Amino acid sequence: MPPVERAAQVPRKLASSGGRVLALPIVNTPERFPLRLIGAPPFDRREDGRLISRIATLFPAARTLVTTPGVHATQRVAFADQLNAERAAAGQPPLTPEETQSYWAESVDLLVDENLILIRPSPDEMDLAFAADEILQECFSKRQIRFLNVDHEGVRQAIKARGECWRIAPLPRTPAEMATMIREAISAIALEPIYYHSRFSGSRFLTLEQFLRLEKLPDAKLAAQLTEIREYSARRNRWRNPEIAFFLTADRFGASQFQNMDFLSMSSAALRESYAKLKQAFREAVPPDLWRDDLENTDWRNRMFAALMGRADETIVPELLWGLSPEFFMQIEWLPGGRIEDGELLFDPVFEEADRRPDDTELRTLCDEKAKGFIFNFIREFGDIEYVNIGRVIGSLSRREPSQGRRDVYLAEIKQAGTPQPHVRILRMQKWGIREHLEEGKDLLQAIMEAEDYTDYILDRRMGCRQLGMNLPRRVVTRKLSERYFGSRREYEGQRLWSTYFEREYIPGMATDKLPRARFRSRDYALRFAALLGQAAAPNLIVGRLNLQQHTLFDDGDEVLLEDAAGLPAEIVVSDHTGTFMEYQRPLELLAPDYAEPINKRLAHVDAPVEMAETYLEAFRRRFEHIQADYRKRRRAFDTLFKHRRRDPAGSFAYRWEKVLERLDASDAGRLAEVIRRNLVLPA
Hints:
36% of the residues lie in helices and 16% in strands. Strands 14-13-15-16-17-19-18 form a seven-stranded antiparallel beta sheet, with helices on one face. Strands 3-5-4-6-7-8 form a six-stranded mixed beta sheet, sandwiched between helices. It has four domains: 139 residues, no CATH class; 146 residues, no CATH class; 180 residues, no CATH class; 169 residues, Phosphatidylinositol 3-kinase Catalytic Subunit, Chain A, Domain 5 (Orthogonal Bundle), CATH 1.10.1070. It contains 22 helices and 22 strands. A hairpin with a 2-residue loop joins β13 and β14. α7 crosses α8. The chain is an alpha+beta fold and 684 residues long.
């Protein structure tokens, strides 16, 4: 039997065997919903505010959406029943079993969230999922339609290849968001809303507390609810997961306890007795401290969250997609961009929606115009790009206090033709650009000149840091993009301004301040880490790295640890040189005490604290002496490096560089190490 044709081939029609095509008229459908609808429109609610149905099934070739309460299997049956009724009215025979199965195979499972429609695609039929997506966009804003199952490689790659990482259903980022997801998962099949529905596996989890609450139901409703549980706990969905699963019971309680029980024909006494036995068996299968549905109970919440995420174990690894360190992934908001088809760049049509709705601030925030600028620059640079995905870092990855100026950071994933893996790059907007100087009240020319001067200042600092031994990313590129000005200066409203940003490769490690404490239980790991951290501390102290509040910046999010194949510390790279050369006059002995803190905060978690501290101090001393010796050996090269720059005692970089070198030459590494040692809190 030939496969059913896709929606693109037979819009508003459904194909059947034998070459026949049956037109399906759209009847009783609101104008806002231009496709055939069986059931209530998505997002319609009951009187109590609950969604009428949290699931739906779309048949792309038939342009038919089924939203009747139940499970996806019953919705597929409802579609076939409706079609057979219409065939009968037209004097045609009912669908054959083969035809019915073919239609069902061409359906797409959907879930209806509070404000999202979630597509659960089959990895082997992504074209079917994308056909459903195109049809849904005729009825709903594209930002309301997202994809699930992205932990499957086939699904993930198909979405990434379209440049649509932003379409991936967002995962909770905080315990509060986890709790919200759990609360919103409560749903019904046809009767009481007693199940926690997993949008990923399709299973509905029945907890002990929800089962105990059935006792308050009158006999008729109790019998019907127990019958529903019996029927659906014995079934599996199209993903081979149980329609109803019993939460936290493992193999100690399940569908077998309900079989051979005809609840609807039981007397009241027999019904209550059977229910009492089921309650007891359910209770005995669940650990006592997890009997209640308690979102304040971290263990219960984490286990339910794991179940809803489709994980059999209790551990949720937040990094599912790109191999980013966990703290990085949890802070990324993927943005609309564009995809490349036959070498042509097609920007996401959601940008057009944003242009049509200028007052929609949420949509304008999502459609970040800088994403377009980044993509343009990548296309110009590479020329053979298959796809680009742009993400916005929505929170600082360091622990420092926010300061003035622009702090926008983005992440880009670029796949070139012929390369096995995509490139991942970090894009950081310049802190002080034309826009920021205009906000200070400066005229446009002055703002442009000062923004360019600041770019040179940033790059000069980077060169100085590298000259003094700081292990920075090997390559940083300065680029520009244009963006419209919307600020306090009305005379420049809507004007295009050039903005500078810095691009570097992503460093595939983890920030030192976010390393799990458990790793330091290994003596070898702790000592290797201490040596690397001591080596990194020396140039950090030399360049006077402080924030505006005069607090030392070190081991607070910018130092990234790379591990070797054995999982042991191999290298520390400083991802960003923010705050360097802030302090260039005070003696280093006054700054050195702060460098005891990176060891102090870890001493309680290591087996050999004294040895770790001494390793750190010795590595610091050796590295400091090496940098100092290098300067004394090549003094002229260092002293003249920035002679061509303006020297201003008020704080130009050339002047700061001069003072930092004088201070380096006058310092004693042994005394500095001793200052740090005196501030260590070692065990007695």
